[in-house]
Amino acid sequence: MTDNSPEPRTDGQTPKVERGGLWGLFLGMAGLLLQPYGVVLSVFGVVQGFRARRSARENRTQAPGALLSVAVGTLGIVMSLAVASVFLMYDEEVRAYRDCSARAHTVSTQAACDEAWESDTGLVPSTVFTG
User: Fold this and answer.
1) Domain presence at residue 79
2) Domain-embedded: residue 122
């Protein structure tokens, strides 16, 4: 994903841009969207951002998006670990909520499932069960 073979620069020639930071940003954002399994993509985003920064520093070029990919990837890792910890801590409640939601065919029965989840855990279902 990174271009490790830069062309030599001559006077007046613009420096080549390292694009690995943009790939890292893409991976970090994908990690944010695919919770809780996005932790792997987020780790790849962080690694790619650091590799792009190092390559740009060695080649004296720019790496747009490299620092942002590290930040977004780190956020994705933290969010993935938080969601995974909720699923581990509230395993029994998660199963009960999913069973209740599978049987709920109306808005009122789904609301009853949401209320039961919220009273058992203190968490709002829309923040835990997204997607």
Assistant:
1) yes
2) yes
